[in-house]
Every structure is written in C-alpha cells, then in structure tokens.
C-alpha cells in the first residue's frame, strides 16, 4: 500500500526539562541518556535529515550493518570486481592498450588493520599514483581511475559507472533501513515514527532495508517530506524498487509520492524520479511556491550526474536541472565541459535574496590526474528554471576559479543565511594532508568584492586564517545553524568533530574541541563521533540548538550516533 493510517502515541523519557542545566550541552541520545547510542540501535551510525513539523523535531538516521558488509564483500563483490577488471584488461589488450595493462590489473597487497575492516563504498587512496582504488575485500585494491582502464573517453567512464553502481548497491545492501524519530520539547519525549516497533508500524527504510538513510526532511505546504538514499539496482525481492524515494506525512498518514509504489498505483514518478542512478535525495529547499529536491548521481557518462526536480503540490514533478548543469555550462563556462566537470551531487540548496542557490560536489578531482575542471561550483536561479553559474573567487587572487581556487575544495557542503549574507561551508578532499575546510561569506552583489573568506588561507589576518579552523584535520563543514546568538558550524574530523560559533561583532569561538575555552572536548568526548552531521535550531522561538553526530564507517563493532542539545 502507498499510504497507511496510524495512531500516534507518545513515549515519555525519564527526565523532564526543569531548570537551566549545569552544562550548556546536554546529551539527548547516547550513553548518558535514557536511550543509548543510535536511538538504542548501534547500526544507526548517523543522523541525516532534520526538520521541524508542527512544533516537533523530526530526525532521520543513516543505518549501516557491518555484519552484512562482511558477508557480501567476502564473496559476491570480490568475484564481480575481479571479473570486471579481467574484462577491461582483455578489451584493452585487444585494442593495443598494452602499456597500461600492468596498472589495470594491478593488485596492491596491504595488511588490513584488524580494528578497521572495510570502508564504504570501499575507496582507498594510493600514494604511488595519487588516485583512488576500490577494495572489495579490504586487502586487494583495484585502480578505478577511468584513464587507467585504457579505454578512452566515454567507455572508460562507463566502466567506472558500473563499478560505482555496484559499490552503491553494496552500501545500501549493508543496511537495516534508515529510521525517523520525533522529539517534543514541551514533554521532553521521543517518539519512534519509522522503524522497528515504531508507533506507525512502518518498518525501517519505509519497509525497505535498502533505503539506508532518511537523507533529507522538509516541511512544505502542510506536509513533512522525507527523501531516502537507496540502491540503483533494486533487490532480489524488489528488483523494480530502486532509486531514491520521496514520502510525505500529514501527521497521521505516510504516502509515497516518488517511488515504485507511487508509480505502480498512481502513475506518479518512479524511484529516482524515473532514473535509478538518482540513488539519493541529497538536498531539499522551498523556493517561490515550489519544493526542490537535488540528487546524488554517480553516472559519470554524459547522460549522468546530479539532477534537480521541483513540484508545487508534491505529486507532479518537473526536472529543472539535468546532467549536473552540463546543459548550462556551454552558456556559462564552456571550459567546464572541456575539462570534464562532473557535478555528482546537488549537495545543498538555499533560498537567498530572491534566488535559489545550489552548491555542488564536483567529482572531477576524485577521478584522476586531470584537475583543470576540479572544484566545487555554485549555481543560482531567479525562477528555478534558468540557471547561471556564480563565479567563485580564486583564493586571494582577483580572478575566479572552481573550488575557490583549490581543486581539493570539491564540494559546497552547507549554506546558511546570517546577518543578511550567505555563508558557505566547504568540504575538502578527505585524502588531502595539506588542506582543510573553509567558510566563505557572500553578500549577493556579484563580483570579487561580494566575497569574504572567514575561515581559511584566504581569510584576513585573524584567529582562523588557516584552513580547517587552523587544523587541516577538519575536512568538512558538515552542518550549520543560525540563532540570534550567532552562526554555528560543525565539522568532520578524525579523532572527533568540532563545533564553532561565529558572531559578526566578536568573531569565532570554539564550543566543542580541545581548546581550553571549549565547553566539550573533540567529538563530545568520543573520538568516534567523526562528524557533527546535522544541526538545527529547535524550538524555533528559542536559541537552543540540536546537533546529531556521524560515527566512523570503519570502526568495529558498530557505534551508534548521538544527539546533543545546547542551551544559549
């Protein structure tokens, strides 16, 4: 069935909000709370979407079950990837590409650390040739750079795309399904909305474990919309259920509006908006009466890359961006096409100053030695249909360049509006040893003067005029929130995330980290809290901030996420 009528009940938590707590940070989900890590389920490794609906806070989770990961990677993945590499090598030899056969079939033997088993989707950085490899078993690594396959142009990208589809399928297979939880501030209580033993009766992943994350949540015209991260290939029992799904909720009933059920029963959009390579709804925003959803799409051919869809009623959807803005590049910057720009994610969207802004993840920098087209991009539209590329300043130079002048800045991860300006949180290459995250401020005026770097090497002389808040281990600005008290920014960092607060009048202050004036240590005292994954102000009429964490993919055993609340 596409919809289900439910009755809601409230499950109270033992503690009740009383007077001002002794600490400014209070753990709401974790070992110090009535619920353990991961909302009592260690496979809930991260919080994802966060939204306020009818004065209550909704949180979506990402789920990873590593027990499934070991099973599949030890057998099927090894056979499939080995066969693919052998096929590529044979084809390359038949076409006279003997020169790079040694790299195509190259196996890099490496001792697997017993504490860290498998990465998802299995990427490793190989210093010998400065590129990515794929490891299906944690020991053998296969080079994935398209040029390495000795198959020129499009065919090399097709091979890479096939491998990425398989890797993404493995990731969604190794899941028990994302969940949704609801928190009521007045009663200080949590309600399980989607998942095992939830009050709705709907199992995790909307009754589909391959929906490994509830990646975005947004209120729009009286409904709460939820987008998922799923498989591009389907499952044995549901081969046609593939691609991201969109569900909506009216406080009583959940209804699928994008997905196999919506298509089969109503003739609405199929999974992935009809394109299963749209495996995840990765961003969501309201603009001029429409709801916009941006996707993650790892099809690296000319027919792939991210898409953006919009709807004014949540049922009929229209595509407004195709192929990662490729069709817009010829009019804005033809060199982007020549240099192989691949906007794989529409990573974040923000309605600012009468325009819809979209920050991308450009995977060109992760695909090999051609870095001319690498670096994040920013696109804008005044009507949601026609798009213009917003030039990004080339660091401290007077010209413009993708990634703010650094190819390692491969994504714009967060955007928030504070003090009448747009603040952009940058994600830098996780494998880089020299670069960290940055934050830029844009006043919307256009041109170089409209931009100011406030964290990073291009920042004016001050407290944080180096990348990563002076620590290049801070790779992502993974979350942001705004209150009257200032702009909050949470990072992704090995050894524990950090959180900072910015005020125009007084600059930056570290709230979570290992400085002497921080309120909590790195990772809130747990080094496995790799990222401050989600953040939101709640209740909306207060200055209280809720923050959810992301725990490390590769740690064994599974470690669940945490949720923290900060009082002003």
Question: What does it look like?
Answer:
This protein is of the alpha+beta class and 568 residues long. Among the domains are: 107 residues, no CATH class; 112 residues, no CATH class. Helices cover 14% and strands 35% of the residues. The chain is built from eight helices and 33 strands. Helix 1 packs antiparallel against helix 3.
What does this entry show, briefly?
With 568 residues, the protein is α+β, with helices and mostly antiparallel strands. It is built from 8 helices and 33 strands. Among the domains are: 67-173, no CATH class; 279-390, no CATH class.
Largest sheet: 5 strands, antiparallel
- The count of helical stretches stands at 8
Residue-averaged pLDDT, rounded?
84
Strand residues, percent: 25-35%
What Rg, in angstroms, do the CA atoms define? 23 Å
Major β-sheet strand ordering: 1-14-13-12-11
- Categorize the overall geometry: globular
Return residue spans where pLDDT drops below 50 for at least 5 consecutive residues. 1-22, 77-82, 92-134, 139-155
Helix content: 10-25%
- State the total count of DSSP E strands: 33
Secondary-structure-based class equals alpha+beta
Distance between the first and last residues' Cα: 45 Å
Q: What's the arrangement of secondary structure elements?
A:
Elements (H helix, E strand, L loop, with lengths): L2 E3 L5 E2 L12 E5 L14 E10 L2 E8 L2 H29 L6 H4 L18 E4 L4 E4 L7 E2 L9 H21 L6 E5 L4 E6 L9 H4 L5 E8 L2 E7 L16 E4 L3 E6 L1 H7 L11 E10 L2 E8 L10 E4 L6 E4 L4 H7 L1 H5 L4 E10 L2 E8 L15 E4 L6 E3 L20 E8 L2 E7 L11 E4 L8 E5 L11 H4 L3 E10 L2 E8 L5 E5 L3 E6 L16 E9 L7 E7 L11 E4 L2
């Amino acid at each position: 069935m596409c919809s289900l009528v439910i009755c809601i009940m409230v499950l109270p938590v033992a503690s009740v909000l009383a007077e001002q707590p002794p600490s400014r940070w209070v753990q709401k989900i974790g070992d110090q709370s009535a619920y353990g890590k991961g909302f009592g389920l260690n496979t809930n490794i991260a919080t994802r979407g966060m939204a306020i609906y009818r004065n209550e806070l909704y949180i979506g989770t990402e789920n990873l079950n590593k027990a499934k990961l070991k099973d599949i990677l030890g057998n099927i993945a090894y056979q499939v990837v080995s066969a693919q590499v052998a096929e590529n090598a044979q084809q390359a030899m038949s076409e006279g590409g003997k020169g790079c056969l040694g790299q195509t079939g190259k196996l890099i033997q490496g001792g697997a650390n017993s504490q860290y088993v498998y990465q998802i989707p299995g990427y490793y950085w190989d210093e010998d040739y400065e590129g990515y490899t794929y490891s299906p078993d944690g020991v053998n690594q296969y080079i994935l750079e398209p040029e390495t396959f000795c198959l020129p142009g499009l065919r090399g990208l097709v091979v890479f795309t096939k491998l990425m589809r398989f890797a993404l399928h493995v990731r969604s297979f190794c899941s028990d399904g994302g969940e949704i939880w609801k928190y009521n501030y007045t009663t200080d209580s949590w309600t399980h909305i989607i998942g095992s033993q939830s009050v709705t009766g709907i199992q995790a992943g909307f009754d589909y474990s391959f929906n490994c994350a509830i990646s975005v949540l947004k209120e729009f015209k009286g409904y709460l919309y939820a987008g998922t991260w799923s498989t591009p290939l389907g499952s044995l029992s549901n081969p046609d259920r593939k691609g991201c799904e969109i569900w909506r909720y009216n406080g009583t009933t959940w209804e699928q509006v994008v997905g196999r059920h919506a298509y089969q029963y109503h003739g609405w959009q199929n999974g992935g908006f009809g394109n299963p390579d749209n495996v995840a709804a990765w961003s969501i925003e309201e603009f001029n009466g429409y709801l916009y959803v941006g996707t993650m799409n790892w099809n690296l051919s000319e027919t792939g890359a991210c898409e953006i869809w919009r709807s004014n009623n949540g049922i009929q959807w229209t595509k407004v961006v195709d192929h990662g803005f490729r069709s817009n590049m010829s009019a804005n910057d033809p060199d982007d096409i020549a240099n192989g720009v691949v906007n794989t994610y529409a990573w974040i969207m923000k309605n600012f100053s009468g325009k819809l802004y979209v920050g991308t993840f450009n995977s060109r920098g992760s695909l090999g030695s051609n870095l001319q087209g690498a670096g994040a991009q920013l696109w804008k539209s005044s009507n949601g249909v026609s798009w213009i590329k917003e030039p990004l300043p080339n660091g401290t130079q007077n010209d413009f360049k993708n990634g703010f002048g650094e190819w390692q800045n491969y994504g714009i991860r967060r955007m928030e509006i504070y003090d009448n300006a747009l603040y952009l949180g940058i994600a830098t290459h996780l494998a880089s040893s020299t670069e960290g995250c940055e934050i830029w401020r844009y006043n919307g005026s256009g041109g170089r003067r409209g931009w100011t770097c406030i964290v990073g090497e291009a920042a004016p002389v001050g407290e944080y005029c180096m990348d990563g808040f002076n620590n290049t281990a801070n790779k992502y600005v993974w979350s942001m929130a705004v209150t009257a008290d200032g702009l909050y920014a949470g990072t992704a960092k090995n050894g524990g995330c950090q959180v900072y607060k910015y005020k125009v009048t007084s600059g930056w202050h570290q709230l979570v980290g290992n400085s002497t004036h921080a309120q909590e240590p790195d990772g809130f005292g747990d080094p496995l809290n790799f990222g401050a994954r989600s953040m939101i102000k709640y209740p909306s009429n207060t200055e209280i901030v809720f923050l959810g964490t992301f725990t490390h993919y590769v740690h064994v055993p599974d470690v669940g996420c945490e949720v923290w609340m900060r009082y002003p």
